[in-house]
Amino acid sequence: MSTRRVVAVSAGLSQPSSTRLLADRLAATTTAALTRGRHPAAGPSATGPDVEVEVVELRRHAHEIVDAMLTGFAPAPLRTVLDAVGGADGLIAVTPVFSASYSGLFKSFFDVLDRDALTGTPVLLGATGGSARHSLVLEHALRPLFAHLRALVVPTAVFAAPEDWAGGEGALAERIERAGAELAAQVALHEPAAAPDPFALTTSFEQLLARD
Amino acid sequence: MQFGVFTVGDVTPDPTTGRVPTEAERIKAMVTIAQKAEEVGLDVFATGEHHNEPFVPSSPTTLLGFVAARTSRLVLSTATTLITTNDPVRIAEEYAMLQHLADGRVDLTLGRGNTAPVYPWFGQDIRQGINLAVENYALLHRLWREHVVDWQGRFRTPLQGFTSTPRPLDGVPPFVWHGSIRSPEIAEQAAYYGDGFFANHIFWPAEHTQRMVGLYRQRFEHYGHGSADQAVVGLGGQVFVRANSQDAVREFRPYFDNAPVYGHGPSLEEFSAQTPLTVGSPQQVIERTLGFREYIGDYQRQLFLIDHAGLPLKTVLEQLDILGEQVVPVLRREFDALRPAHVPDAPTHASLRAARDAATATTEAATTAAGAGATP
């Protein structure tokens, strides 16, 4: 089975960052579920595909994201990240909650991403915050954003508040496990993705003329 | 190879003094720049077309007609003429008129324009941008080549028995370039008609231009106009030159940092690495510009942007002196030496008329020969 590429985007700013930690945990369970083949399409005994995981910290590209907004093109290091996201078989997107929503840096990254880059891409959403009272940010802010991007968002989105890192009932680990399995199932169901090429000619001139 | 300047016609405060030129000053400065371009030995002056502040050139043929009267050798062009929101009938008429007044020293570059409200202001829809460019140019192309045109399309009122006047000078339509930054459909359009393709090339990474020109060349050959390396390519470029590169950087930096389009974003050094912007000595500009052909191939026209971002007229004229004396003569010599014989020069009115006459003579000779053979 061909290699599947999973990209995890973390908008955490502090170092170390609990947002990055959540992104890593989600990537790990997704990878484990994919390689074990524990998804309905593969059956219990099948072996899964090789998985390549890339974790991107937006902090490292913060200046480039602003430059891309101002100039209209992405500097080379950011271009590489945008291409990786556009060509991913599955995306994990995790943001800290700032002022009751995703962070500005998180939104700005998806603002400079090419149109159609995430169309049909399975996406797992995550967020971290100082209080569990913000957990619905996943549903009222992130989910509509990715619906707009025509991504295929899996049902379970994972919010981690400070107390979640202590474990216990309804534990974070179980939600991470469930969410990772859902993303793995979607990734396994879809053909490997190819990044869209904005310079590719998709119509002949005769067709363009005939449109009139 | 042709060298020249293209202007956006922006009225921008000089960031070093805060001074804003009046519209009258800016318009007259554009004329002075065009005259100076001819004086220092450049070949082309091209103006943008805009219908919003802070830009002044809303009426390119008025400006170019005035410049035509004050110059004798300069080719007058546009960068770009809005094929989406102008009536193609008016483009046909205005540029044919200009062609007569300028004794054929006219070509034009068509573009879609990127200012969203301009479309509704002129009764169009930006989402139809590509379709407007395709349909309007198909009509323009016919108006310059067919004496009487019957026509019906989606975007303008139909024509029955219409003749665009004046007819193109000597029956030879102005040469057309199609400009686009990243729409493959426009490279395809240029290739389909065997027209030129002009890549703005400034403000964007070189890879964009490389992809677009590569597509245009490939499709030019596909449509049977010649080999890919015979396709007609023009490039933009953005330079600021002083004898010493440190002086160039020091003087240009405040204009860069506050420029419309890219100001307050990447540093001058980052932007110079990411795009063809070259700020430095004449030798640096020569080397960078010669490097363009390594990813574009041999090309026909190089236009420089030198008068934007609030640069004062005096500085712009000094730039033209340096380009004319120290940069362009070297580039002309080097490019000409590198270009293979089968790659053509940029078309001019004279070369297009000669090609047309040669084609007509061939057809007539064939007809005569066939007629003679048929005689009993």
From TrEMBL, chain A:
Q: Does the keyword Flavoprotein apply?
A: yes
Keyword Plastid (UniProt): no
According to its UniProt record, what is one Pfam family this protein matches? FMN_red
- Which molecular-function annotation in GO is an example for this chain? oxidoreductase activity
Alphabetical keyword list: Flavoprotein, FMN, Oxidoreductase
Q: Which Gene3D superfamilies does the entry link to?
A: 3.40.50.360
Query: Which named protein is this?
Result: FMN reductase
Q: Which organism is it from?
A: Kineococcus xinjiangensis
Automatic annotation (TrEMBL), chain B:
Q: Which InterPro entries match?
A: Bact_Lucif_Oxidored, LLM_FMN-dep_put, Luciferase-like_dom, Luciferase-like_sf
Task: Respond yes or no to whether keyword Lipoprotein is given for this record.
Answer: no
Keywords carried by this UniProt record? Monooxygenase, Oxidoreductase
Question: What is a single molecular function from GO for this protein?
Answer: oxidoreductase activity, acting on paired donors, with incorporation or reduction of molecular oxygen
- Show the Gene3D superfamilies listed in the entry: Luciferase-like domain
Keyword presence, Oxidoreductase: yes
**Mind telling me which Pfam families this protein's record contains?**
Bac_luciferase
Q: Where is this region: Disordered?
A: 342-376
Pinpoint the Luciferase-like domain residues. 1-294
Protein name, entry field:
Putative FMN-dependent luciferase-like monooxygenase
Ranges of compositional bias, category Low complexity: 357-376
